[in-house]
Amino acid sequence: MESHISAQSTRANAAGDAQLPQVGEPRNPGMELDLDWALGLQANTSAIERRCATLPGRRSVKKEYQAAWLLKAITCIDLTTLSGDDTAGRVRRLCAKARQPVRADILQALGTPDITTGAVCVYHDMIAPAVAALKGTSIPVAAVSTGFPAGLSPFHLRVAEIEESVKAGAHEIDIVISRRHVLSGNWQALYDEMKAFRAACGDAHVKAILATGELGSLRNVARASMICMMAGADFIKTSTGKESVNATLPVSLVMIRAIRDYHERTGYRVGYKPAGGISKAKDALVYLSLIKEELGDRWLQPDLFRFGASSLLGDIERQLEHHVTGAYSAGYRHAMG
Ligand SMILES: O=C[C@H](O)COP(=O)(O)O
């Protein structure tokens, strides 16, 4: 079994100075491909949809409880910019936001002056400015990789891209899987690919983006989740944000339950990252309550849960400002980059 590498030691090694809180969670080492287990997974779509339909309608937490949950959500955001027109300047502004996600006086009033986002997530060419802008903090830099978002470039180039991004200082690598392996039932190829990506990451943690909106069925989502975990994924992530359907609650329930099964059978906790289209504070609260109910409080820490989001922070900031001052500010005052 692989030695227990904490999130802190991994990121500190890669960054030189990133120091995350010690959590002591052993890293998922993966296991042999167990096709009987993966192919035995089913997804009862109507039961899943019924369960999910009850979630947003419930009475939400209010007042200081809501503020506390929203602060928790901030610590779990991979604050993201993934645009063709990204510049070092935009990334520096985003990193400033990651370091101080909410106005200082609001954070003071809430008693959390030092809160930061969970990470900053960028394309490869933006790693260097992000690492420089986050120097001296414990905020990791995540890089999307392997021909993101389609993942259709030559395999050796996808592996090389990971290695380049780790060399450039990325602490976390968000890879995209080959959807065609899932759609054609080539599970061995999916496992081998994921295993190679994990090996290329070295000490950097790897998030496996399934692009669930392109996998055809919830059963495929369950199987792909399990196979990526068997191949050593540290996190499984729903989407690139570029598919026509990105994070949804039904897909989340399926992936979360695969994570639960994997933990029950292997003892390893794999993280979860819903991504794409999550832009409202109230939606973030629904996701957090789903995680709490299905996986428990341990998974509500940033080493096991992240939101992949480019605009969620702005809405959370507005809600927190309202909580403290009683007034809503205009959305344009919460630009991200
Ligand atoms: O991984 C993160 C996603 O690309 C962000 O998607 P979003 O811009 O819809 O929040």
UniProtKB/TrEMBL annotation:
Catalytic reaction annotation: 2-deoxy-D-ribose 5-phosphate = D-glyceraldehyde 3-phosphate + acetaldehyde
EC number from the UniProt entry: 4.1.2.4
Region (Disordered): 1-27
Superkingdom field: Bacteria
InterPro entries for this protein: Aldolase_TIM, DeoC, DeoC/FbaB/LacD_aldolase
Sorted UniProt keywords: Cytoplasm, Lyase, Schiff base
GO molecular function: deoxyribose-phosphate aldolase activity
Location(s), subcellular: Cytoplasmic granule
A GO BP entry: carbohydrate catabolic process
Biased segments, Polar residues type: 1-12
CC terms in the record's Gene Ontology section: cytoplasm
Chief location: cytoplasm
Pfam families per UniProt: DeoC
PANTHER family (alphabetical): DEOXYRIBOSE-PHOSPHATE ALDOLASE
Similarity section: Belongs to the DeoC/FbaB aldolase family. DeoC type 2 subfamily.
Name of the protein: Deoxyribose-phosphate aldolase
